[in-house]
Amino acid sequence: MQRIGVFVCWCGSNIAGTVDVQAVSDALRNEPGVVFSTNYQYMCSQAGQDIIIQAVKEHNLTGIVVCSCSPRMHEATFRKTAAAAGLNPYMVEIANIREQCSWVHKDMASGTEKAIILGKAAVAKVNLNAPLTPGETPVTKRALVIGGGIAGIQTALDIADAGFPVDIVEKNPTIGGKMAQLDKTFPTLDCAACILTPKMVDVAQNDNIRIFSYSEVEDIKGFVGNFDVKIRKKARFVKEDICTGCGLCTEKCPVRKVPNEFNLGMDNRRAIYIPFAQAVPKVATIDPDACNMLKSGKCGVCSKVCTAGAIDYKQQDEILDEKYGAIVVATGFNPISMDKFDEYAYNQSKDVITSLEFERLTNAAGPTQGKLLRPSDLKHPHTIVFVQCVGSRCASCAEKGKEYCSKICCMYTAKHAMLIRDKYPDTEVYVFYIDVRTPGKNFDEFYRRAVEEYGVKYIKGMVGKVVPEGDKLKVQASDLIAGKQLHIDADLVVLAAAIEPDKSARPLATMLTASMDTNDFFTEAHPKLRPVESPTAGVFLSGACQGPKDIPETVSQASAAAAKVIGLLVKDKLTGNPCVASANEMMCNGCSTCERVCPYGAITYIDKEFRMPDRTVATRRVAQVNPAVCQGCGACTVACMSGAMDLRGFMSSQIIAEVDAICK
Amino acid sequence: MQKINRDVLIDRAISLLNSGQVSSVLGWRQGEFFYDVTPAVFTDENDIRENFVWNDFCGANFSKYLVSKTKASDGKILVFLKPCDTYSFNQLLTEHRFDREKVYVIGIPCEGMVDTGKLKAQVGDGLVSAQSTEEGLLVTTLYSDEPVNVDIKSVLAERCINCKSKKHVAYDELLGDEGQIEDSDRFDEVARIEAMSPDERFAFWQGELSRCIRCNACRDVCPACTCEKCVFDNPVSGVENKAPVNSFEEKMFHIIRAFHVAGRCTDCGECSRVCPQNIPLHLLNRKFIKDINGFYGEYQAGECVGSRAPLVDYNLEDLEASDVFEGRDTQ
Amino acid sequence: MQVNKYRPLIVAFCCNWCSYAGADLAGNNRLNYPADVKIIRVPCSCRVNPSFVLRAFQRGADGVIICGCHPGDCHYTSGNYYTRRRMALLFSMLDYLGIERERTRLEWVSAAEGAKFAATMNDFAEQVAALGENKRLEDLRCKR
Q: Are B191 and B235 found together in one domain?
């Protein structure tokens, strides 16, 4: 039996004005378990807290009920008071007789009656309280960043600068991501390479950062502070530590016609290649699907020309086991496939391209060395049509495109149009749009310049059809404002393809038990207040894996994620919330129902041996809650049929006791 | 008349037993009376030959017994499952209640089982024997000189009249022909009660539930009720209580039980079959099934292993609790 | 004190993050609602077991209301979605048994909606008071 002390606060006249505090403390004195009851003007004051501490000592109290303001206000205060008196802080319950009683009821009689009932409910609950101690888990002081685009790079740099080791896992042979493929960046028109490649070099030179390029995450176990990750380092058939990146092999390799991914297949690379000049790590990689030596054992040219002796045709995939305290997802995006958008003739004409292909076409390191030449005949295009929202905001065509706005297309299209008009003023540029969305710093000004200074023809309306005819692309479109059909003979059509999360994100989310939305974007822990954290503790989100983003936004989020990671890694131990779920193993059916409703992946199952009443030993599957991961929502407690799952601090028996006290 | 003959079942059971593929057989054995057929474990060839029963009274669903029997047995258990029993089987597998590797399932077709209550109502008490014929049963009683011919349709159990499936959703081996998922009218009675006024509904259920003697037969037979410890027997669950009639548990027992199996109940109908007071308990479970189908889309528990039950799932666009009554009569 | 007027007993389960804070806000703004409403704090509406609702009725509550964060705003991301399904089915079942459907309610109240909290409680208390005592669940099993 508990020895409970009841402390009724007047809160000046805030409570005492409509509640007879003396009557409340008198009534509660007779409740089961209560050995002491008093009232005082301001319980939260030092004098009030001293009354509590004194009473705990004098009356050997084991539990405390404070009838006062909302627990959201002073629960923490009174828990500290209890601790100061030598009690477990979780032996305190608050009866909210101010916000939920004296302030909302004017009548003294009914207010007092209700305050007594609320006090009884709190007493009933404390009677069943048990001391709770928050669990502690150590933190591995190393972070993993999955994805080496600008998001991953920025996050890794920020974490490393704070003094913590970081590993970047990048599935491609080089870091840099989509940004490395871009030409200029809106709204300032800096060259992407000029601002990105120094950061890539910083990453390579930072002692705290390791880059696992051409690698993939294979398996993730563990929880916040203590992740065990298996990383597959794919065989690139080149010894990374020996290769000097001289590039001789990539010039001598006889296999010349491998579509170059970096230029989106618009030109070719060799079977051994370095994706681009500023690649990090600057190491060659052999494409096993193209290399003659690996396919048939005949060739070996690269090995012969490599003076460093870096080529190793026998290299195998390597599995690394690493430990991390935090994981940042920065898996980025891709433009969606244009295969289903037949109306724009993407697959019929080489001169219908996506905006990312356009970036490569205007880039000095691209297939045309930055001259704007159309792919089919390498002639300068004089009429260019940009089509916005191809597959974005596509509510009616969910099987083809995406319902959401891809967010970056309006701005990069304005950029493309402006750059063309700047370099080639003889070119007519049309942009067909649904809406032009420019909500960013200096964004609208940028778009206005494209229209007003550069004379880009913006037309509200959609392109219905693109038909290749001779060396022209016949564009049929509607001008919604003029209310007429347009027919344009274009030389080049550029499609602003919707963007979608990288395909690697879904299996990764499964490994992380991190939640995703229906579009496979990672869900944030709170859309407003915790935008860079996943609901799964210890997992953070950086960049477009969480939703479409431009570079400034990606970098902000990347740094924000880094700040959250640093905040975690700086701790030696994680102190959990002790109000977590736990399963009574003797009652657990092992049915997996609780695991299915847990939003945090806090529940796992083990096969455990039990001594049965008849002295036999039985192996049963039982649930295990990881208290470091559980957030204490209680969804599992209701999902559990047998009642094996309960929530500390809000146990079923405690809530039922409150119900009974109120309904008595 | 069942399409498959008892001898076929016995032959398979004995051959599997003798070959060592299984170490025991879960089948039906005659109880006190011929119509009182109970589940039994056989391990002996002669016992099977003499006492294995397969007739129109083999209603019992064996799936639940596998939970305890697989734990108690080292070898494989042969179990005969009727189509509707296989749904319970899958549901239990979804909930990891037994090891699939320890069970050998023979699916057998079922033409519907007899409701002994209906039979007695028709021919009177003192049932002595019943012989299956093409179109029904030839029944002898203590009080009739001549055997009485009974039309099988008139004495089928309610769940069999409204059979939801003659297709097995799980088996290792199938005897006889495979059937189809049936179009049944199983929700008609629920709809009829829904259409009543609240007073009529209350009177109906008060009449039914007041007959309950809390024998726990419905719980004990239910294949969805396999908890290591039932909440009604658990002193900290808040719903525990055994005897007093005027207690919480007594009044809420059936609501809580129906809620506990909601989304997991395969509608096998065992609860109503075993109720000694003939309370139509399946009408509570079916209400939940009907609501789940209506609110969240068609869902048949046990149709496939590993499916996510409706109550551990959600949709952002689910209807609000207040919309539950939309379109229904106001009170 | 009014002696003759029937006063219903109402139990309100409020989630800690939204609705309980909404109730506190109603207090801060001194918005009145009947003292018949007694609030029980739970971490999330998904902590409310349907058996708690039944327990309250059995112990003499005349109405039970569950309040949680608006869909999409759950502190635990998905708890209220489970609540919504559980309570939809429970309420429908109680109605099926002939229990007055006006005795139960599930309402989404955010931490900013103090006014909505008070208005909801006023409305619900009035609705339950109009029904009178909760006899039916009491009588469901043992009348005859």
A: yes
Q: What is the DSSP letter of A586?
A: T
Bridge partner residues of A8 (DSSP): A39, A67
Yes or no, beta carbons of A633 and C21 under 8 Å apart: no
CATH at C126: 3.40.50
With H, G, I as helix, E, B as strand and everything else as coil, classify residue B75: coil
CA–CA distance, B27 with B34 (Å, rounded to integer): 15
Chain A contact for C61 (CB, 8 A cutoff): yes
| Domain annotation covers residue C40 | yes
The answer to whether the bond into A32 is cis (omega within 30° of 0) is no
In which domain, by residue range, is B265 found? 185-331
Are B164 and B49 contained in the same domain?
Answer: yes
Average pLDDT of the segment spanning A525-537: 86
Peptide bond before residue B235 is cis, with ω within 30 degrees of 0: no
Taking the alpha carbons at both ends of chain A, their separation in whole angstroms is 21
Residues of B in Cβ contact (< 8 Å) with C71 = 316
CB contact under 8 A, A663 and C59: yes
Q: Has residue C14 been placed in a domain?
A: yes
- A352-354 and A603-611: which strand pairing? unpaired
Show the domains of chain A with their CATH numbers: 4-126 (3.40.50), 235-316 (3.30.70), 334-500 (3.50.50.60), 581-648 (3.30.70.3270)
Query: In A, which residues are within 8 Å of C40 by CB distance?
Result: 121, 655, 658-659, 662
Taking only the tens place, the pLDDT of each residue in C62-76 is: 999 999 999 988 888
Give the residues across from C66 on adjacent strands.
Answer: C13, C106
Distance CA C29, CA C115 (A): 8
Judging by DSSP bridges, how do beta strands A215-223 and A226-233 pair with one another? Answer: antiparallel
Residues B174 and B29 in one domain: yes
Interface check A596 vs B, CB under 8 A = yes
By the 10 Å C-beta count (0-12 exposed, 13-18 middle, 19+ buried), A230 is classed as middle
The whole-angstrom separation of Cα A115 and Cα A106 is 13
Q: What's the token pair of residue A292?
A: 């003659």
pLDDT at residue C1, as a whole number: 44
Chains with 3+ CB–CB pairs under 8 A to A are B, C
From B281's Cα to the closest Cα of chain A, the distance in A is 19
Name the pTM for this structure.
0.78
Q: First and final CA of chain C: distance in angstroms?
A: 38
Q: Which two tokens stand for residue A11?
A: 């809160």
DSSP 3-state of A413: helix
Q: A648 by DSSP, 3-state: which?
A: coil
Q: From A31, A582, C89, select the one nearest B314 (Cα to Cα).
A: C89
Residue A135: what pLDDT? 86
Whether C69 contacts C47, CB under 8 Å: no
* Domain hosting residue C61, numbered range: 10-139
Q: Which residues contact C97 (CB under 8 A, 6 or more apart)?
A: B201, B202, B205, B255, C136, C140
Quote the number of domains for chain B. Answer: 3
CA distance A562 to A540: 8
The reply to whether B309 touches chain C by the CB within 8 Å rule is no
| Min Cα–Cα distance to chain A from B22, Å | 21
Q: Do B96 and A653 touch (CB under 8 A)?
A: no
pLDDT tens sequence across A553-571: 999 999 999 999 999 999 9
For chain C, the domain total comes to 1
Segment B98-121 mean pLDDT: 94
| A398-423 per-position pLDDT tens digit | 788 999 999 999 999 999 999 999 99
Q: Is B226 on the interface with A (CB under 8 A)?
A: yes
C109 in contact with A, Cβ within 8 Å: no
CB of C99 less than 8 A from some CB of B: yes
Q: B222 and B318: one domain?
A: yes
Query: How far, in Å, CA of A178 to CA of A175, rounded?
Result: 9
Q: Hey, is the C-beta of B312 within 8 angstroms of any chain C C-beta?
A: yes
What is the maximum alpha-carbon separation in chain B? 67
